[in-house]
Design goal:
63 residues; alpha+beta; two-stranded antiparallel ribbon; 1 helix; extended
Length: 63
């Protein structure tokens, strides 16, 4: 994992790699994934630093 110089990212990747609950993770760098939300009537898009897949994740088809 290539890190920025930010200590927060280094700590986050350490925690993700050491966690028994994380199956895989990737840095959301140039992936374009955003999470839309509204705050005080104004639309925003949150861009998470990392995406993680939990080991306990079970896919369920939504009807």
């Amino acid at each position: 994992m290539v890190l920025d110089t930010d200590a927060w990212e280094s700590t986050a990747t350490f925690r993700l790699e050491e966690s028994d609950e994380v199956e895989h993770y990737v840095r959301n760098d140039h992936m374009g994934l955003t999470i839309p939300y509204e705050f005080q009537g104004v639309d925003h898009a949150y861009e998470p630093d990392f995406l993680a897949l939990q080991r306990t994740f079970v896919f369920r088809e939504l009807l």
